[in-house]
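Q: Here's a chain of 128 amino acids. Please give me its 3D structure as tokens.
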Amino acid sequence: MTGILAGVQLVLFLVAVVTLIGAVVWRQFQRHRTAVWFRARLHDADPDIRQQAILGWIRYGLHRSAADLLALSERERDPEVLDTLADAVRARAWEPPSRPQITSLRRWGAAWHSGSLQEGGTPTTEDG
């Protein structure tokens, strides 16, 4: 009887380990799939889609979205999209700067809000 119980316990333990591994793999796959989805929308031709992507992607945390959003700040030309980005970054001020991209993105956002940047992240000139 003890041998049967040990066998059942071993089987249950192995099932639990396999289930746990499966859950971890599934979660990583879902994270990757989500990132790919938002990255594609950040490159969409429609500025409204890019704005929605900013708002959606940043909800997953700056630690996950900062690099993509920083790249967007450098290539984006639409001032409304850039306003959305700067506002979204400002709204996440409570998040710790766990990556250098977060600090860079916050600096960019502060500069955008202060008016010292123009579209594409370039400094404004004295001429306007």
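Q: Can you summarize the key feature?
A: Helices lie at 2-42, 47-58, 62-75, 79-91, 100-114.
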